[in-house]
Amino acid sequence: MSEQASASSASSASLESSAGALPASFEYGDLTSGEIFWRDHQVWLHEHGYLLRPRFLPGSLARAHWVDDPRNHAVPILETLEVPDDKHITIIVMPLLRKYCQPRFDTFGEAVDFFSQIIEGVKFLHDHNIAHRDLNGLNIMMEGSKMFPDGWSPHHPKLNRDFYSGRARLYTRTQRPPKYYIIDFGISRQYDTRDPPPLEDPHRGGDKSVPEFQLTEAGEAPEPCDPFPTDIYYLGNLILHDFVEGHPDYEYRNRLRGFGFMRDLAKDMTAPDPAERPTIDEVVEPFAAIRRSLNFWTLRSRVVKVRGFPDPRRPLRHWCLRIGYILRRVPAIPSYQ
């Protein structure tokens, strides 16, 4: 996949890899004389693994590419706007998203839904030979419009859209399930084949701990490596740091209690030797088994931090709300679909 920044390319004839095409749910103006060449050669370019921006595509191809598959958790592109007074700039319009963990997860069932969606999203990418190459917690976000029916302030997500009239009204993830999205495809790539595995020079993203990116014992630069096991490491490390063990630098702030059921799988995913890590297909099956093993009360139970000052009123409020869910037969594991 070409860099996401290529959508803001300096030339109207710039190309994106076929995995990086922008969904076209809108119409463009007439093509200029200089653009007709690209329209007429789009089939030939597509055969060689490149897809032109939707402006140059036949409508059926543009609408059919990528877009409506529910397994797709890549952030959607709603529209592109060409700046009239600067041909070198294109504005990309995306949904307003929130950090995936804000507000906090209320129940274990909500967290299990998060794991399910992100594993599904990574599998979708890998099934299309796309390696994200920077799957850290900052690049996974949440579409929260159902949870926040009146919106929120982009400057301060806990407040109303106008920023000064109070806290934003919200529902829990159980009441209004969100969809989680993978963002920032700036260093992502799509490959023609994974047999033999593609080898890429290390490109360090937000998570600097990738074992295969470290200097050798002799201080030499690391060798080119397969980016797909690195994606698995990123995902496993996110689960370890944000749920199971806490980040080594911020353990006091974000370590949660009770996620030991994900430890063994996350440890396998973060094996120091990339060859020993499971593929995403080999993650799906054991995770499904973990999901099936969690009982009703675990899934309904409240997620709490290891440290902090407990509020004795919170468990009572929690179970009063949960009993209401049970009586109304609201699923313990939410589903955005």
Automatic annotation (TrEMBL):
Positions in coiled-coil regions: none
Disordered, as annotated region: 191-210
PROSITE patterns, A to Z: PROTEIN_KINASE_DOM
Pfam families attached to this UniProt entry: Pkinase
Domain of life from the UniProt record: Eukaryota
Boundaries of every Protein kinase domain copy: 1-288
InterPro entries: CC_SR_Kinase (IPR050339), Kinase-like_dom_sf (IPR011009), Prot_kinase_dom (IPR000719)
One Gene Ontology molecular-function label: ATP binding
A GO CC term assigned to this protein in UniProt: cytoplasm
Keywords per UniProt: ATP-binding, Kinase, Nucleotide-binding, Transferase
PANTHER family reported in the protein's UniProt record: EUKARYOTIC TRANSLATION INITIATION FACTOR 2-ALPHA KINASE EIF2-ALPHA KINASE -RELATED, MITOSIS INHIBITOR PROTEIN KINASE MIK1
Record's protein name: Kinase-like domain-containing protein
